[in-house]
Give the backbone structure.
Amino acid sequence: MTIQSIQRAAAVLRSFSEIRPELGVTELAAIHDVHKSTISRILTTLEAEGMVSQNSETGKYRLGIGLVGLAGVALGRISVRGAAQPIMSQLVHDIQETSILMVRDGREAVTVEWFGSTQALRYVGWIGRRVPLFCTAGGRILLAWEPFEKQVALMPFLPQKYTESTVIDPQALQKLLAEVKETQIAVVREEFEEGFSSLGAPVRDRHGRVTAALTIAIPSVRLTAENFPTLQAELRLAAQNISAELGYGFGG
Amino acid sequence: MTIQSIQRAAAVLRSFSEIRPELGVTELAAIHDVHKSTISRILTTLEAEGMVSQNSETGKYRLGIGLVGLAGVALGRISVRGAAQPIMSQLVHDIQETSILMVRDGREAVTVEWFGSTQALRYVGWIGRRVPLFCTAGGRILLAWEPFEKQVALMPFLPQKYTESTVIDPQALQKLLAEVKETQIAVVREEFEEGFSSLGAPVRDRHGRVTAALTIAIPSVRLTAENFPTLQAELRLAAQNISAELGYGFGG
DNA sequence: AACATTGTTGCACAATTAGCAACAGGAGGT
DNA sequence: ACCTCCTGTTGCTAATTGTGCAACAATGTT
């Protein structure tokens, strides 16, 4: 028994994205198959609550600053962040590449912490960035230890290709996930973003469950056969150290 | 014309805080003077939307990871962040103290970016942290250039004292805000958190409006008469540089 | 075992919401 | 300047949905 108008409000909020950060009443009404007067009222209410704001020039709406404060409270309960921060900071200092910590949110992975490389050419992340599970290293780490039935249940939701390299064939993906589980490392080369590749390693909680993914995001030109062994070793070690901090008895 | 049930949902979300990250149905019902069955249904709906999650052991609720992704989109539209990041990183590198960028959210200031000092004793911030306007350096920066009537209109909402040093007398505060406006620097010594002080400087947009506050948060033992001139000068310069990036013609 | 407390659920009713229709304002074209 | 089109907003009312009552299920304490 859920409350329909609250569901509608949440659906409206989720309509905004990195790609479509600003939307109009008429657009949202079409997306949700709801009358525009209804959308207008939902947005008016959400604006009063600081969760959206209206661009006075365009009349269109965006997500509002009030969500940031709510997310701050939500982030505060994610204990892996505290454990990971010093370790990630050191990792980035050592390898001079960007490191990102992700957890699962529905059918996506979301960034809950990140430290950026200081090199001029580097990957820039942000807290709250959502990326697909299937074609990112962090996403594959979060999927690889899921029960097979759960992995299969997600296959109908495979997204479009993001790049020429994106793997979207279910069987090929299953194979990749099995390899991730075996090697404990995920490697994604330009499947999600042209020019960038990523490595991922599992972070486990005290029960041994993979609850987060520690990743390195790197301009592809800098991921070579020469430095790959070092990078993946450093990443593994950092992920193991974070897991140990969380109470995982991992060869500690 | 706002939608009451959506307002209620938002009010429930805002009930969670740093201090009270986990709340039960009965507590929330009392806080909001709403029947607990109503609260239970609101929470069930919000949980289905990923905006809260229930602790299976305690039966209580917390804010959920879905809010982080929404906040990520909201953060993406705050252009001051991109301008500020390299400058803040350099500032922290130079002074070895934590720097925080805040914008206003209603009657509070919220952190939209931060870079932490690597010293062992340091201030740790986080994206989405909300702090009172009145007794933090960033908050005072955000208030100081507000029209007098707007400042006065906020006085009834003065919070309780956080520390022995918190200034909550309206007239004393008005005087402090006038000084901030004159000196272009806010200094708060342990008014919000024991052991920590902060300095704030205004960040202006291309229209000249103060739309963000750049701050340094520092263990009070490290803020001395000796280093204060250097710290405030570095902070001013960094804030001016960010403002210039935003198109403010500030003695460029 | 009995009791207290918490979160959940079925039911019915009336309060609130959703959709229709009209409106206000702005942009673009002639 | 006038007209058309499009967008977001608002008054009104019917009916749908949300709310509160009452009961329930589960857990913890004495």
